[in-house]
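Tokens as discussed.
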């Protein structure tokens, strides 16, 4: 089996370390050591740690499993949203609450430090919002989701509440905030 390329190894190490430790606590040295590379390797392939972080954000924001759950129109819209957010919550609990959501973690840590990171996060959140809004609109059309509020407003509330719940789960190291999100925000707010 062929060994992964240097850029792939650095990327994988950065994704892991940024998720585990955050951007500021993950030095270029940490990333390249984890990848088994020399420190200069990162700069040869990514230009800077910030450029690498932007690519990690873009990759993480487009994870296919999440989007396929939300886009599966063979499933009723409210059920799609439920499955989608359950899958996100499993990602948080699978790490024993140590990781949280990488996008949420970066959002809490970096927007005031890096315009590049803020722009990439904003683009991913916009795409994410559109996908959630589409499912909410479908649920409003079939009557399973309230029409009292516009789909965009409901999608905004869902995304904000879920990201907040993921951060709280990480801090509390338990599922209480995620469970509250699912039972109160997702199921009762949309009903």
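Sequence:
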């Amino acid at each position: 089996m062929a060994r992964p390329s240097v850029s792939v190894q650095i990327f994988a190490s950065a994704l892991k370390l940024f998720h585990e430790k955050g951007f500021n606590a993950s030095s270029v040295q940490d990333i390249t050591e984890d990848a088994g590379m020399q420190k200069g390797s990162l700069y040869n392939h990514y230009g800077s740690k910030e450029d690498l972080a932007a690519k990690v954000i873009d990759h993480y924001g487009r994870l296919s499993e999440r989007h396929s759950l939300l886009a599966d129109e063979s499933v009723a819209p409210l059920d799609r949203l439920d499955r989608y957010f359950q899958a996100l919550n499993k990602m948080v609990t699978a790490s024993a609450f140590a990781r949280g959501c990488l996008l949420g973690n970066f959002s809490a840590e970096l927007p005031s430090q890096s315009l590049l990171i803020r722009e990439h996060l904003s683009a991913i959140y916009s795409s994410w919002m559109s996908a959630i809004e589409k499912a909410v609109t479908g649920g409003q059309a079939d009557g399973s989701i309230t029409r009292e509020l516009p789909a965009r407003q409901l999608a905004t509330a869902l995304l904000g509440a879920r990201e907040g719940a993921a951060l709280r789960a990480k801090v509390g190291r338990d599922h209480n905030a995620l469970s509250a999100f699912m039972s109160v925000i997702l199921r009762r707010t949309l009903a």
